[in-house]
Specification:
Blueprint (H helix, E strand, L loop, with lengths): L2 H4 L2 E7 L8 E3 L1 E5 L3 E2 L3 H7 L11 E5 H10 L13 E4 L10 E4 L2 E8 L4 H7 L4 H4 L5 E7 L1 E4 L4 E4 L9
Parallel strand pairs: 5-6
Antiparallel strand pairs: 1-2, 1-6, 3-4, 3-10, 5-9, 7-8, 7-11, 8-9
Length: 167
């Protein structure tokens, strides 16, 4: 495990059961391989038969440090809930993990792509987040191995092998 990953952890977990609806902070959540986070809007769409072909919508992660930096540089006072992402992390550059596997709790997640803020997010939270958060919006990804994720869990960058994919 790299030195940076030793200190990487889950700071908070958020879920929103409805598109555009309220986001709730939870202490733990079940991550289901190929489906998403139990109770989250993207998971519920799949259960209802409205599945998309986009595996990167199963989980979103964002960095506490990105919010802190944005708040230090602007007067926006961005709150973690306003990011409308699932897993707030610390101690790890998520953009550098795209294509790798991360063990979070006993789940395994693969960050797949950047997740910059969009005009829909700006409309929902009422703050001009596009420019200050453009490279700080976190990542979208898929759940490779099912498991429970809890606030406070350590995050470990894994060496990818065939066994990691068997979840």
């Amino acid at each position: 495990m790299s030195e940076a990953a030793v200190h990487a952890r889950v700071e908070a977990i958020f879920t929103g059961p409805e598109e555009g609806g309220l986001i709730h902070q939870v202490e733990s959540i079940e991550a289901l391989a190929g489906q998403g986070l139990e109770g989250d809007r993207y998971f519920l769409r799949r259960v209802a038969g409205q599945e998309t072909d986009d595996p990167a919508d199963q989980i979103t992660l964002f960095e506490l440090e990105a919010i802190e930096l944005t708040n230090a540089e602007t007067d926006l006072d961005v709150k973690p809930l306003e990011m409308r992402r699932n897993i707030m992390t610390s101690g790890l550059s998520l953009a550098d993990q795209i294509g790798k596997h991360l063990k979070i709790g006993n789940a395994v997640v693969e960050p797949m792509e950047d997740n910059p803020p969009c005009s829909w997010l700006v409309e929902l939270v009422g703050k001009p987040l596009l420019k200050p958060m453009i490279k700080r919006g976190g990542v979208r990804g898929r759940i490779v191995v099912s498991g429970t994720i809890r606030a406070g869990d350590q995050i470990e960058v894994l060496e990818v092998d065939a066994q990691t994919e068997t979840g």
